[in-house]
């Protein structure tokens, strides 16, 4: 099927990933082919003007109506509650992260939707998972409700593919870093905030300890990974739950040192809070060899390159105090 015949629905299009993915999809498929949807109309429309619809993914009837009305062939279902917010609202996190996905999978099973993208996360791993070069298949004993709900979601995706032939594909994203949109309540959010505070105030109070290593990824790599996975020949897709994808691993001390190369007067303090325990239960680095072998995944940005790009772009948006 050529790009001209695809009609794509993005659910959760106002979020950190949704905004940039909608823009990228509109560049590939054309603005009119990509229907953005979220709970509220966006304050800054994503990329080229294109259709926008209000949608709560828990409203299955409305989801079906939109799929019918726009003749949707692909769904990118991104709406979720992340790890830190999920700990404050565990029931809502379960409801949205699992039942929202089930509504999408059920609608896909009925026929018109040919492909579904659904984001999983490194949060499906837990304290008994090997923390370095975490394999694709290993112990998954998540301790956050976010991780528990995403692990359940992974199993549902495998099930709908095996049982009903739904072409569902997913990635276990690490922390995502972008200068365009703020992250939405995760444990890895510090890696975005640190850049903003470095430029705005010249100092940052980090809620994770300085030597806490976590897997991270710059947004252009994350968007490219998503598009490449969705464009890959279905015969090459051996994982229907969520592919491990790696890019960069660093600690707060290392990202601060990289920022200090550009802003030497930048200072960081450390005051770990409840998110430390979450971070300590997650991998420090990821083995993504299955994604590399199956569909050719390869990251492009390292910490130095990402930092240069983040600071350059943020400086154009903000007035730095320590330039
Ligand atoms: C979070 O921190 O909750 C997310 C994630 C790793 O999935 N960024």
From TrEMBL:
Residue ranges of every copy of the NAD-dependent epimerase/dehydratase domain listed in the record: 8-235
Family matches, as InterPro entries: Epimerase_deHydtase, NAD(P)-bd_dom_sf, NAD(P)_epim/dehydratase
EC supergroup of this enzyme: oxidoreductase
Swiss-Prot/TrEMBL keywords: Oxidoreductase
EC number: 1.1.1.103
An example Gene Ontology biological process: L-threonine catabolic process
Stored Pfam families: Epimerase
Family note: Belongs to the NAD(P)-dependent epimerase/dehydratase family.
Protein name: L-threonine 3-dehydrogenase
């Amino acid at each position: 099927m050529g790009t001209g015949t695809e009609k794509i629905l993005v659910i959760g299009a106002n979020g950190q990933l949704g905004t940039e993915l909608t823009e990228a999809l509109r560049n590939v498929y054309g603005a009119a082919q990509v229907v953005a949807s979220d709970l509220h109309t966006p304050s800054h429309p994503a990329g080229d003007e294109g259709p926008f619809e209000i949608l709560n993914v828990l409203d299955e009837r409305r989801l079906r109506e939109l799929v019918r009305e726009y003749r949707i062939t692909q769904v990118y279902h991104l709406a979720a509650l992340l790890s830190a917010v999920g700990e404050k609202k565990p029931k809502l996190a379960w409801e949205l992260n699992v039942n929202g996905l089930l509504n999408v999978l059920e609608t896909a099973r009925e026929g018109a939707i040919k492909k579904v993208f659904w984001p999983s996360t490194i949060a499906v791993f837990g304290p008994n998972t090997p923390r370095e070069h975490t394999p694709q298949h290993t112990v998954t004993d998540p301790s956050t409700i976010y991780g528990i709900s995403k692990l359940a979601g992974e199993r549902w995706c495998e099930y709908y593919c095996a049982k009903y032939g739904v072409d569902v594909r997913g990635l276990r994203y690490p922390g995502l870093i972008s200068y365009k949109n703020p992250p939405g309540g995760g444990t890895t959010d510090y890696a975005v905030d640190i850049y903003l505070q470095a430029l705005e105030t010249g100092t940052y109070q980090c809620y994770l300890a300085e030597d806490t290593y976590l897997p991270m990824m710059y947004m252009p790599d994350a968007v490219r990974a998503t598009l490449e996975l969705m464009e890959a020949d279905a015969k090459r897709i051996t994982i229907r739950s969520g592919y491990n994808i790696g890019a960069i691993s660093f600690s707060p001390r290392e990202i601060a040192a990289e920022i200090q190369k550009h802003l030497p007067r930048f200072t960081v303090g450390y005051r770990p809070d409840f998110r430390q325990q979450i971070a300590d239960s997650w991998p420090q680095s990821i083995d993504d060899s299955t994604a590399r072998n199956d569909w050719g995944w390869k990251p492009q940005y390292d910490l130095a390159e990402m930092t240069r790009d983040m600071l350059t772009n943020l400086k154009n948006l903000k007035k730095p105090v320590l330039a």
